[in-house]
Amino acid sequence: MGAQMEIAGSTVVVTGAAGGIGAAIARRLLEAGARVVVSDLDQERLAATAEQLAEVAGAAEVVSVAGDASADADIERMIAAAQSSFGPVDIFFANAGVGDGSGLQASDEQWQLALDVNVLAHVRAARRLVPGWLERGSGYFVSTASAAGLLTQIGSATYSVSKHGAVGFAEWLAVTYGDQGIGVSCLCPMGVDTDMLRTGMTSGGGEGGRVAAAAVTGAGDVLDPASVADDVLAAVQKGSFLVLPHADVHEFLRRKVDDHDRWIAGMQRYNRHLTGGGQ
């Protein structure tokens, strides 16, 4: 176990909070007594979500900052809004993410977007926050990665690679700073009932998007974001690194580590099944 963090009274930033897992995390944080800055690129949806969240704990406990979670200037605005409204940031949820069904033909622009939002956004936020946390002796960073970052994402090269990067960066943070008062948790779910699963993977992704979505929904239950948020907050309070809302992911990962070649062969069979290539 790493450093733990008490939720009540903490100042928190949640990116990708206009819906899905981010909005559910923000709601649970407010219910637990935190003060929350929510951010998202979709300004209209964010405003509506913030209004709903304000009903949970009062308008004074939630602030919305529309912006790009991967842009240094917008990250700075989120942190500054938290500082001026509530005080220094205690917990940062790097939750914003993008996904599509791009494969080998993905453009450099598609690769850059996936790396910027799914990995470098985490790096840029940590770069800004960790020095202050070290001075204070406490802080907590939560990375929303994916089971794809531990296993792989059939149908999407950009998503699989970038989520592996998110897991790798979270591990590095924990190894480097986890014994200096900084807690790190890495969320790695499979299917969660979010816009990304319903439309994100399939938009512009063609057949790869359909296969990616089918791979996720066919591998296990599609969970409600609220239950995932409960798991994440419990991990923060315990100081647990890996958050696996789908218990099967642990077994899948064990099989991968035990025999990588056999695991790849099994994934190849699953890919053929999903793409209509037979058994």
List descriptors:
Rossmann fold; 7 strands; alpha/beta; SDR family oxidoreductase; oxidoreductase activity; 10 helices
Percentage of residues in strands: 5-15%
Strand order of the largest sheet: 3-2-1-4-5-6-7
Q: What would you give as the CATH superfamily?
A: NAD(P)-binding Rossmann-like Domain
Task: Count all strands and give the number.
Answer: 7
Proportion of residues in helical segments:
40-55%
Poorly predicted spans: none
Per CATH, the architecture is: 3-Layer(aba) Sandwich
In CATH, the topology is named Rossmann fold
Q: Class by helix and strand content?
A: alpha/beta
The topology string of helices and strands comes to EHEHEHEHEHEHHHEHH
Q: Mind telling me the C-alpha Rg?
A: 18 Å
CATH class: Alpha Beta
The span between the termini is 42 Å
What is the overall shape? globular
Number of helices: 10
Mean pLDDT across all amino acids: 90
